[in-house]
Amino acid sequence: MPNQLLLDLDVLDGDNDSPLLGSAKNERTLMAYNFFSLTREHQTELPRYDDGRFSIEVKGTSDGVASIWDKEVLIYLESLLQDRINRGEKLSPLFQFTANDLFRITGTKAAGTAYDRLEGALKRLKGTMVTTNLLDDDGGGGETHGFSWIDDYRIQWRKNRNGEKSMQSVRVILGRRLFNAIVKNRRVLTYDTRYFQLGPLEKRLYEIARAHVGDKPGFKMGLEKLRLRVGCATELRFFKSKIQAISRRKCPLPGYGLSLIDPRLQRSLDPKAPRQTGRTPLKNYLVYFYRTDRMAAMLPAAEAPMLEELGDDL
Q: Model pTM?
């Protein structure tokens, strides 16, 4: 099968999957957990994630690991695949698209630097090796697999009137692991179009909210657990300051809000609770995610369930 796919990559001509007609979508696991660098700085590996149930190791080549901006290419490919599924077409991990249609979806200005960044993203997506027991076909997390996000890619160039190279089309073979997760598990969620204008931390906060809130008013999770799920390498005290600053903005995330909760102060609202003294340890802080379109029916933060209580925590 791989050899046939490579042959198809060579001979495919003129039949683009773009334009993307549906909305931008992503596999739920890739929203709930972090697999990508949150910085444009060169990184050849990410800190290992292990919560006792799931583990994630991400290592790259000299080109670096794939970043949160490179992830936008994957989101686009997954969206094209979901379009095929919705139309009942024959499914294949092979895609051909125009760079300009990708840029239309992500809100990127089509220019020489954008084409260069796209080529760099494809290199990193192919070179990044992910080892994890997530993305199992049954969702049970019982096996550990190593895979790359894409298996192969090819760019067709042509020269414009000024003799400069112009990107005509892009052909990509989506990695089998991700392809199977989308086709078999069918846990794909739609993005708000404003996602692509968010900063890297806000992108991850939106994805976590989108993956877990669902049709519920909201949920809480520990600050340290959130830091690990976001993929932020900063100290917890600095992460707390960032979350606090974001929570104070008006409409910080498309469709969602968040609040930093000091459980010591929360308990003080109960007149029967014992008096609390001293500072609250950082690890005891909670972050409350909630839907902003359900403000009237929103549960008080004190009554919102913890992430572990939702029953669908990945």
A: 0.89
